Amino acid sequence: MFRFLTGKYTDSATWLATPKARLFLLYERRMLQEILPALCGYRGVQIGSWGNDRGVLDKAGTLCHWQLGFGEAGASDIRFDGRHLPLATGSVDAIVIAHGLERVAEPHALLRECARALSARGQLVVLAFNPLSSWAFRQGLSSRRHPAFQPCSAPPTASRLFDWLRLLEFEPEQLWRYGLGFPFFGGAHEMGSGRRWARCVGWSAQSYAIVARRHVTPRTRIGRPARRRTAQTAVGLARHSSGRVICRR
């Protein structure tokens, strides 16, 4: 499993500079080219300066894009503490969390803030590493030749993240599995697309992506029932009318 550094923001630049990490980012960008064009709206926000790439949202369907970074991220437009988003309630149409759940001490709190900032039909894309993969197990082994990615907190599994999103009134729409060695030679595949073999080995993928849409349930105000109009009221209004009503059959 991952090595945990609770409460600290880790620098992943060393791991991202490795050849395997660059290949992983290539697979991830190809997958995002399939997901991001479906995002719609006016404002789009990327949380996390993943891979020092500001062009993650370039393929998105939103008109305006901003990037929020953690701690010492110098390439971002806005820096925040990883827990309190500096965004107004319901002001964003699409949010992409680029491996941000691993960079904060409380991933569930970050998801709550995203739910608050998104509009009623806003879209959320979450990229996260799979803690059940063999790659995650190797990150716990100390090695000088192969730098390890050290997260701030344990990333949730895809099924756990599904439960979190549903509690926050999100409806998951897509699940992608991707990474090095999946399947066998690397790549990305959408679960539920008719490929049964992908379902059998999907749990072992290096990373996953979930696309969800905000689905706010309308709440009806409970109060006193409205008074029904009686026949006497209608008759009374008719008596005060002027002129004669002609009925044609």
TrEMBL record:
Any single biological process term in GO: methylation
Protein name listed in UniProt: Methylase involved in ubiquinone/menaquinone biosynthesis
Domain of life of the source: Bacteria
GO MF, one annotated term: methyltransferase activity
Coiled-coil region list: none
Taxonomic path: Bacteria, Pseudomonadati, Pseudomonadota, Gammaproteobacteria, Salinisphaerales
Domain Methyltransferase type, chain residue ranges per copy: 78-126
InterPro entries, alphabetized: Methyltransf_11 (IPR013216), SAM-dependent_MTases_sf (IPR029063)
Keywords: Methyltransferase, Transferase, Ubiquinone
